[in-house]
Write a structure and sequence with these properties.
It is a single chain. Helices cover 0% and strands 54% of the residues. With 115 residues, it is mainly beta. Strands 2, 4, 5, 6, 9, 10 and 11 form a 7-stranded mixed β-sheet that branches. The protein has a 4-stranded antiparallel β-sheet with strand order 1-3-8-7, with no helix packed on it. Strand 9 (89-97) and strand 10 (102-105) form a beta hairpin. 27% of the residues are buried.
């Protein structure tokens, strides 16, 4: 029922920045958690950052101090600074609500960090 549309991926040099956006097709009024995951070739999908409806954030150790997750109306953002080649992955937006019983994923956006 809920669609997540991602944008903002692309090619950037090491040390550069990108801002990812994920827009939900509807407003979630109750408790929810939105987050960003990423999956590099040959790797498991891993959590990057989350933000709750109350504004609480959480980050993977590998991105702390470099990435910032934020939320505006129906949209979650991931500001990525000081990008490293190891950040190269497909980034997926995720939404969970109704006590985690409902989960939605975006289709992914490619982030490539390379010289």
């Amino acid at each position: 029922q809920v669609q997540l549309v991602e944008s903002g991926g692309g090619l950037v040099q090491p040390g550069g920045s990108l801002r990812l956006s994920c827009a939900a097709s509807t407003t979630i009024l109750g408790f929810y958690v939105m987050g960003w995951y990423r999956q590099a070739p040959g790797k498991q999908r891993e959590l990057v950052a989350t933000i709750t409806s109350s504004g609480s954030t959480n980050y993977a150790d590998s991105v702390k101090g470099r990435f910032t997750i934020s939320n505006a109306k129906n949209t979650v953002y991931l500001q990525m600074n000081s990008l490293k080649p190891e950040d190269t992955a497909v980034y997926y937006c995720h939404l969970a609500f109704s006590a985690g019983t409902l989960n939605y994923w975006g289709q992914g956006t490619q982030v490539t960090v390379s010289s």
